[in-house]
Design a protein that fits this description.
alpha/beta; Rossmann fold; 17% strand; single chain; 13 strands; eight-stranded mixed sheet; five-stranded parallel sheet; 49% helix
């Protein structure tokens, strides 16, 4: 009944037999059972419309590599992953590799039927829209490294998740993102706001500046100061709502101010990374930010403290920062003057200059930490019954 070719990759005979039986009952006529990743890859590359059901109970690493290759090369291949030992971390690996759904082994017929029907009718655009997260990087004090943090976080999120990430420069007077990435975009945020009624996924992905063939897309600040004067807070909110349809993450390099446009960005954010450094003037400014955020009605968990340029031998320790701010430090980015200056002067993110530096590793770990927590939150809700039974 279903006009789709199906490949089953499993070493377990009983699992394969159950899958074939259930697929036959659903009307699948073209089903093949394959025992190795190499043969499965060869078969799938010849198919235009396919379904891969892969059991990761054995040979997990090779099968994850297969999922990654197929998800990149065959957009019309739906992938369902199985395992007899599910965990949150395993499911995160599976989803990041490119699988669309997961089921535990042994397979329950009702769950399998529901998943297959969902896979065949899934609307990718709606799925991405529902999970989009907006993260603003903010400080009310300039010169403490928030643009570097926003830029590297956005790029690392795109690399780790393999999903579309938008990086927006809201520093309307002195935006630096295009300098940090050595980009000369043809369009900027003013053009985008003037054409909101025309925007769709194709328009966005062709208009925003794509960075170096990654999934990172940059929306630059206006080139002229006067263009920023006509932008309203409502337009910023409308822009975010539109971008949610296409991007899984929106990273905002927010301006160091509390004007209406910036407040609109913070209001719409799921997470605010409040950047500071370990000195008293910066901590006092951070304290004022937290007080204002409380007046704005932001939940405490929405704002996370990031200490930039952190050194273990600083006079002010992270516990002192927490005491002053009455808030836990979420992340510490180590001080590395030479790596950051090289990034700025070359217009290349630190991870692409030298990924082994402590600051590049910290940015990558932060991106992984944020995305892991979001994945875990979503997966625990989606697979609560599966994980509770383990």
């Amino acid at each position: 009944m279903e006009n789709i070719s199906t490949v089953i990759l499993s070493e377990e005979f009983s699992t394969s037999e159950v899958l074939k039986l259930y697929l036959e009952e659903l009307g699948f006529n073209d089903v093949v059972e394959i025992k190795t990743c190499v043969h499965a890859y060869e078969k799938l590359t010849c198919l235009n419309n396919s379904l891969l059901i892969v059991d990761l109970s054995e040979d997990k690493d090779n099968k994850l590599d297969l999922i990654t290759k197929i998800s990149k090369e065959k957009e019309n291949c739906k992938i369902l992953a199985l395992s007899d030992n599910p965990s949150v971390n395993l499911i995160i690996e599976i989803m990041r590799s490119g699988a669309k759904e997961f089921l535990p082994v042994p397979i329950i017929k009702k769950e399998f039927t529901e998943i297959i029907k969902k896979l065949l009718s899934e609307n990718k655009e709606q799925k991405e829209k529902s999970k989009c997260k907006i993260i603003s990087v903010f400080s009310n004090k300039g010169g403490i490294g928030k643009t570097s943090l926003a830029t590297n976080l956005a790029l690392d999120l795109a690399k780790i998740t393999k999903e579309n990430v938008a990086l927006i420069d809201l520093n309307f007077q002195t935006g630096d993102i295009t300098t940090f990435l050595n980009l000369k975009p043809s369009f900027n945020i003013s053009y985008m706001l003037e054409n909101l009624d025309k925007i769709n996924e194709t328009f966005l992905l062709s208009t925003l500046e794509r960075y170096n063939r990654t999934n990172l897309y940059v929306l630059a600040d206006p080139p002229y100061f006067k263009q920023a004067d006509t932008i309203s807070p409502k337009q910023i909110s409308n822009l975010f709502n539109t971008l949610k349809n296409t991007f899984s993450y929106i990273i905002v390099d927010a301006e160091a101010s509390f004007d209406g446009k910036n407040i609109a960005a913070l209001d719409n954010s799921d997470l605010i990374l409040l950047v500071t450094v370990a000195n008293l003037p910066a901590l006092r400014n951070t304290q004022r930010c937290l007080e204002l955020f409380e007046k704005l009605g932001y939940e405490k968990e929405k704002t996370k403290i990031v200490v930039n340029r952190y050194m273990e031998n600083d006079e002010i320790k992270d516990e002192d920062v927490e005491k002053v701010l009455s808030k836990e430090v979420y992340w510490k980015v180590p001080n590395n003057y030479f790596a950051i200056m090289s990034e700025i002067n070359k217009g290349v993110p630190v991870s692409e200059i030298n990924s082994s530096t402590n600051v590049a590793q910290s940015y990558m770990d932060l991106a992984k930490y944020i995305s892991d927590n979001l994945y875990k939150q979503n997966l625990k809700e989606k697979y609560e019954n599966v994980l509770n039974n383990q």
